[in-house]
Amino acid sequence: MKPALFALWAALLLSAAQAQSSLKFSEMYSKVTVRGIEFSPKVQGLSGKSVSMVGFMAPPLKPKLDFFVLTKAPMSSCPFCSTVADWPPDIVLVIMPDGKLLDPSTGALKVTGRLEYGIKKDDQTGFVSLMRLYADKVENQ
Amino acid sequence: MKTPSLVKASLLLGTLLALSSAAAAEVKIYPYSGAHVLAGQKFDLRVEVSGVAAGAEASVMLDGKPVAGLIKTNSAADTVEYTLRGVSLIAGSHTVTVTGAATGQATMIAEAPATVAQAKKVILFIGDGMGWNTVRAAELVAHGYNPDNGMPLGRLEMETGLSGLATVTNSSYDSFLTDSANTASSIATGQKVLVNALSVYPDNTKDSLDNPRIETIAEILKRSKNMGIGLVSTAFGTDATPAAFAAHTRLRGDYSAVADQYFKGSAKPDVLLFGGSNDFISQTVPGSRRKDATNWIDGSQKMGFTFVSSRAELMKANTTKLFGLFNLSNFNSYLDRVQFKDPSVLGDFKDQPYLWDMTQKAVETLDKNPNGFFLMVEGGMIDKFEHPLDWQRGVWDVLEMDKAVAWAKDYQKTHPDTLVLVTADHAHSISTYAGYDHTKGPGNRDAVLVYQDGKFPTYSDKKDVNGIPMVTPTRGLAVGFAGVPDYCETFTARPIYKDPTISDGSGGYAPNPDICKEEGAYFRTGNLPRNTNQGVHSADPVPLFSFGPGAQNFVGMMDQTDIFFAIAKAMGVDATKDAGK
C-alpha cells in the first residue's frame, strides 16, 4: 500500500552547510484576486534558494515518478487525469533530479530543493506550474 | 501456381470479404432519428458513412429532395461525411434519406411554433445535483417539525405557492446515466446529448469544437425576440451548466473556448455572473487556466460590459451589460462563506455575493430590455459537494438557492409576466435515512437514531445572519449516499473541507487518512469501482417546481428534453422568426 520512500542522496556539501528555509503553503501568495495571483515577498526572496516544504503527493499518473505535484492536503483529484479536476491554486510542482525516480506515496512528505516561481509549461505533459521545487531530498514525515 | 480449388477458395474469400466490407458500412445521421426540434430551430445536419471504399459517395435527401450546399469531407480513408450548418425545418415530420455507398434514414419532428406567449420573462433555477432527496434533506434542515404535534413547520420556498409540479427523468444519448453537460444541454436544446458534450451532436472527428451544433433556447430567444440573456452560477463560469446554454463543444473541458463563445457566440448573454475567473484571464497571469493571452475582463469592458468582482461592486452596478467574476475558481460553499468563515479557506475572497444578490442584480439588469429575458441561475456547488459525500455543504447551498427562489417569487408577484422554474440537472444517490444525536459525539453509530428514536431535527434552534439554520444542531440528520468509494464516516460537518479519498498510488483510491484520524471516524467499504474517488450521479428523478404563467406546461412526468419545448411554448417562441439583430 505504501511503498517506502528513499532519501535520494545527500545534498551538495555547500547547501548542507546552508541554513534551510522552510515555506508553508499559506505563505505562497500575498494576494489572490479574480485578476490572478501575486507571489508573496517571501517566495520572491527565496527564489533560487534551497527551501523545504511539507505537503502531500497529488495522485500520480505513473508508477515511477520523475516529477509530482505537492499539495497542502491529501487530494483525490489528479492534475493529468481529468479535464474537469478542480485544482487549488496553491500547488507546487516537484521535479526530481535527472535519473532519480520516486515511488508514489500517500503520506506527508518533506521536500527540500531549489525554489523557482513564475509560469512555466512542461512541454511533455502540457502541465502549467506557477511554482517549482527542483528536489534534492524527499523524506517521509 | 494455384490449383483450381484454391482459386475457387480465394474467389469465395474475396466475395466474402466484399460482403463483409459492405456489411460493415454504417450510416449515422444527425439530428438522430426520433429527434424533436422546434420549427425554425437551427441545427447542423450531418451524415457520416463509414466502412466504405475510398472515393465512395452517398446522396442525401431531405423529404425526397436532394440537400443543396452539403460540404463533403473524408475524416478517414473509409469514411465520407456530408455537413450542412444552420439548417432548420418547417413544422411537421421530416425524413433524411441516405443512398449510394450505404443507405440509411432518419425521421425527425419539427414542433409547430407557439402562437401565444404566456410569459415574457423566465427565471430558470437549476440546482446542480438537486434531486428529490436533496430537496427533502434541505427541507428537513430548514424547517423540521413541531415536536408537540408532529406537524411539519414549513416547506422550502421552491416547494410552496406552486403553479405547477413535475418529476423529471433524464438520460444521455449514450447512457441511461448522465453528467451535468448533457443534462443542461437537454434542457437547453431539447436533444439527447453525449455525456460530457455541450449542445452538440456526436461526430467522427477528433476536433471537439467542430461537432454539429443545435441551437439553444437562449440563442433562439436572442435571435427570434432579441431578448436579454443572463447566466448566473456559483460554480466557475465555464462549468457545464451555464455553458450548455451559450456554448457548443463535444468536451465540456474546453473551458477557454466556452469563455470565448460567451462573448463571441450567438447567445450573446447580457449578464454573466460566476466564480472561476481563471478561464477569463491571460495565461501570462499566474492562476490562469487559459492557453492564450485573451483577457475577457478587459475584453468585455471594450464590448460595453460593466465588470464587477465583489458583492459591493455588484450591488452598485447600474448597467445593461454586466459581467461579474467573484473568485479565481468556484465560489466557496455557503457554509464556508457564512458559518465556518475559516480565513485559510476564504483567503482574499471575503466579499463574494450571495446567489440571491446575483439573481436580483441579474433581473434588474435584464429588466431594462423591453423584449423580456431568459435568465438561468445555477446553484452550482450543490453537486460539487455531493460528489465528495459532503452532504452538509451541498444541502446548505440548496438553502442559499432557496432564498434566491424566494426573491424570484416575490419579483414574479409584481411582474406577472414572469415564469419561474426550479429544477435540477440530475440527482445524486443521497438519502436521509435516520436522525443523529450529536450530543453523543461524531462517528458514533449508536447515535444514529431510527424510527421513533429519531424524534425531530433541531437545526432551526440556531440560525445564522441570513436566517438559515446553523450546521451544528443537537439532533441532526444521518444522510448518506448509495454509491460510494471506500471512505471514513463521521456523520458530522467539518469546518474545513476534506476530500473523502486520496490516491493509493497505484490507480485506485483509499479513504483520506486525515478523515479516518478524526474522532469517531469509522471505515465504510465502498461499492463503486476502485478507481472512483468520489460519489457519482444517480439515475434518480429530479423535481421541477414552477410559478406563474406557462407553469401549466410543466406538470406530471417529464423527460428532461420536454423542458426545452415547454419553455419555448410558455415564452411564445417562433424560431422561424428572426428579430434581425
Descriptive account of the structure:
- The complex is a heterodimer of chains A (141) and B (581).
- Chain A is mostly beta strands.
- Chain A has a single domain, classed as OB fold (Dihydrolipoamide Acetyltransferase, E2P).
- Chain A has two helices and eight strands, in the order αβββαβββββ.
- In chain A, the strands form two sheets. Chain A has a five-stranded mixed barrel. Chain A has a two-stranded antiparallel ribbon with strand order 2-3.
- In chain A, strand 7 and strand 8 form a beta hairpin.
- The N terminus of chain A is likely disordered.
- With 581 residues, chain B is of the alpha/beta class.
- Chain B has three domains: 86 residues, Immunoglobulin-like (Sandwich); 300 residues, Alkaline Phosphatase, subunit A (3-Layer(aba) Sandwich); 51 residues, no CATH class.
- Helix content of chain B is 26%, strand content 25%.
- Chain B contains 15 helices and 28 strands.
- In chain B, the strands form seven sheets. Chain B has a ten-stranded mixed sheet, with helices on both faces. A five-stranded mixed sheet of chain B has the order 2-9-8-4-5, with no helix packed on it. Chain B has a four-stranded antiparallel sheet with strand order 1-3-7-6, with no helix packed on it.
- In chain B, helix 8 links the parallel strand 14 and strand 15.
- In chain B, helix 2 packs across helix 13, helix 3 runs parallel beside helix 5 and helix 11 packs parallel to helix 13.
- Chain B is globular.
- The N terminus of chain B is likely disordered.
- The interface between A and B is large, with 41 and 42 residues.
Which keywords apply here?
heterodimer; A: about 140 residues; mainly beta; OB fold (Dihydrolipoamide Acetyltransferase, E2P); 5-stranded mixed beta barrel; about 40% strand; disordered N terminus; B: alpha/beta; Immunoglobulin-like; Alkaline Phosphatase, subunit A; 3 domains; 10-stranded mixed beta sheet; 15 helices; 28 strands; globular
